């Protein structure tokens, strides 16, 4: 006697499948799985917000440090130039030598170091302003995470560049008064010290930043690979 064949159940329609999926999501949400995924998403959003807040705080700190250093150095340069230019005649020795290293002698410089680019004072002033603008743009708009050495270095360079440019535009020359006596070296001023030391700090900060980025990239690569857990890939025991 032939048994009757079981009737094949018809495939559920797309609408029915959608209703089943919705019901399953509601059950998961009620059991806590859905809430857990929502909490994870919330933690991701809060972490991103925390990073943004830290970035804004670091940018504010960099701006304040930059402004304080630049203004202080520019004020020191302006005061010293005003004192020597108003108290002594050109070529007059104002003091020294001190420790056999430097003496004070007033010089009006219409060019660059060692008399180069003589009588190009206006052009040199324009170049100084352009360099300052490029460095500020790099520090605050192009550099992702400038270090404190870079911030202080750029501040000193900008202060020195603006100080000498102001002299060139208003006086037609730069006031120099610090003369080394132990070597053949041009007479310079406080602004020149800021430019030189600031450039050294800026380059050192960039080198350290690149090294830090390389270390972080290497650590991230090692963390992404990580140790392989047993059973993750390959054949387990008895799996031949």
What does this structure look like?
- Helix 2 packs parallel to helix 4 and helix 4 (148-170) runs antiparallel to helix 5.
- The two termini are 46 Å apart.
- It contains 5 helices and 3 strands, in the order ααββααβα.
- Strands 1-2-3 form a 3-stranded antiparallel beta sheet.
- The chain has a domain at 70-219.
- The chain is elongated and about 100 Å long.
- It has helices at residues 14-31, 33-87, 121-142, 148-170, 190-225, and strands at 93-98, 102-109, 174-180.
- The chain is mostly helical and 240 residues long.
Features:
240 residues; mainly alpha; three-stranded antiparallel sheet; elongated; disordered C terminus
Short description:
The protein is mainly alpha-helical and 240 residues long. The protein has five helices and three strands.
Itemize the secondary structure elements and their pairings.
Layout: H1 14-31, H2 33-87, E1 93-98, E2 102-109, H3 121-142, H4 148-170, E3 174-180, H5 190-225
Antiparallel strand pairs: 1-2, 2-3
Percentage of residues in DSSP E strands: 5-15%
Q: Report mean pLDDT, rounded to a whole number.
A: 82
Helices, by number, come to 5
CA radius of gyration is 34 Å
As an assembly, this protein is single chain
Structural class by helix and strand composition: mainly alpha
Largest sheet: 3 strands, antiparallel
Order of strands across the widest beta sheet?
A: 1-2-3
Low-confidence residue ranges: 231-240
The string of secondary-structure elements, in order, is: HHEEHHEH
Q: How many E strands?
A: 3
Distance between the termini: 46 Å
Query: What coarse outline follows from CA principal-axis ratios?
Result: elongated
């Amino acid at each position: 006697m032939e048994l009757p064949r079981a009737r094949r159940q018809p495939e559920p329609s797309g609408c029915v499948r959608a209703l089943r999926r919705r019901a399953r999501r509601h059950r998961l949400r009620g059991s806590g799985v859905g809430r857990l995924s929502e909490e994870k998403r919330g933690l991701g959003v809060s972490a991103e917000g925390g990073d943004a807040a830290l970035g804004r705080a670091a940018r504010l700190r960099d701006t304040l440090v930059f402004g304080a250093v630049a203004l202080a150095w520019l004020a020191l340069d302006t005061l010293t130039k005003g004192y020597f230019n108003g108290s002594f005649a050109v070529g007059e020795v104002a003091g020294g030598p001190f420790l056999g290293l430097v003496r004070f002698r007033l010089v009006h410089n219409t060019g660059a170091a060692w008399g180069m680019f003589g009588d190009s004072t206006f052009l040199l002033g324009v170049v100084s302003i352009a360099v300052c603008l490029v460095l500020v743009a790099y520090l605050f708009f192009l550099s992702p995470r400038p270090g404190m050495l870079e911030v202080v270095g750029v501040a000193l360079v900008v202060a020195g560049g603006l100080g000498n440019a102001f002299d060139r535009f208003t006086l037609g020359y730069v006031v120099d008064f610090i003369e080394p006596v132990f070597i053949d070296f041009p007479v310079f001023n406080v602004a020149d010290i800021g430019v030189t030391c600031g450039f050294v700090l800026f380059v050192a900060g960039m080198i350290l930043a690149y090294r830090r980025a390389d270390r972080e990239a290497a650590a991230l690569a090692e963390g992404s690979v990580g140790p392989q857990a047993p059973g993750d890939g390959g054949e387990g025991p008895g799996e031949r």
